[in-house]
Amino acid sequence: MIYVILVLLALAAGVAAMLLLQPDSGYVLVNYGPWVVETSLAVLVLGVVVWFLAVYLALWLLRGVIRLPGNLRQAMDRRRQDRARESFEAGLLNLFEGNWKRAEVELLRRAGDHHATHLNYLAAARAAQRQGAIDRRDNYLRLAAVNQPEHEFATLLSAGDLQRKRGEHAATRDTALRLRQRDPNHPFAIELLAESYAALGEWEPLRQLLAEPVARTALDPPRYEALSVRCLRELMQTAVAEARLDRLKGLWDGAAPLHAQPELRRAYAHGLARLNADAETMALVAQTLSKEWDADLALLYGGLNANDPIAQLATVEQWLVAHGDKPELLQVAGRVCLRNKLWGKARSYLEASLQAAPTPQAYLDLARVCQDTQRPEEAVKFYRQGLELAAEKACET
Fold this sequence. Notes:
Blueprint: H1 2-21, E1 28-32, E2 35-39, H2 41-97, H3 100-109, H4 117-130, H5 134-147, H6 152-165, H7 169-182, H8 187-200, H9 203-210, H10 213-218, H11 221-241, H12 245-253, H13 262-274, H14 278-289, H15 295-302, H16 309-323, H17 327-339, H18 343-356, H19 360-372, H20 376-396
Antiparallel strand pairs: 1-2
Helix pairs in contact: 1-2, 2-3, 2-4, 3-4, 4-5, 5-6, 6-7, 6-8, 7-8, 8-9, 9-11, 11-12, 11-13, 13-14, 14-15, 15-17, 16-17, 17-18, 17-19, 18-19, 19-20
């Protein structure tokens, strides 16, 4: 505004100076009714310019007066927004520094003036949870959803994360299901749902979730594998408890990528043995031990009833050659010899097993050998030693 006036005045002064400096500056006569005005051309031009400037200035002042309330409101709004931003930033800083109460106060102080009110409430919900104020937390989450319904997904994600951290597994599951209704492929929603299913022991829904291709990419590989193994192990145990051999086999057949997992393989082998599928158990153990050593499966093999005990003993002795005189194999060989009434070999294997690593079961088997060979005094001694060792192990645990 000032620059415009100065420019116009400079132009007017230039024109007036040019006219005044000329020998003939011109003559102007204006007659209107009884009024007569006589002046030079330079003065008329200067007067017109001044008149226009006066009108322009009056209009500018009038516009300023009219716009003054709006300008005041805008200035006040900017001030409120600046203060709201400062309060939000102070709240976040206190939240990161662990000042939960101060963070909650700052985040709520001017939440209504902040352009992203839902962020204030989401951060305040985290501060409230840190203080154990679950009712306040849930209220802030509700306010976040009410104030910014278009950002409900972000509110649900925050709610699910907070519920999981507090161990509210049923609530986490429900929140994760709502998230998946909006975005079935969201990685964090899948992670929340998988974790809550595992915590609640809902293994069949977890198995179905992990079978989805998107779950493999949503979860990091170690966690995906751990959840898959645990889920199948639990389902196998349920199938064994319900005496459902077909269900047990179906679970194993459907988990081909996990067959190399020792934990899952042992669960399946023990399940087969408990359901009296000894032939299939022996085949699985023999296949495994032909490739790698597994002490648990070796001991399980020794308790199985084979249709051909002699072939069973030959298999164990082949393992002894392949894997060496491991205590578990020596004990298994002794048990198989005991079943075949090969008393001498049974005693030899069992005594070697006890020298390497004494176990209550080896003492029990050796006592049975002595009892079957009419040596009751030695049998009593081995029974007593086995009981003492079992008692020691029980006290240690």
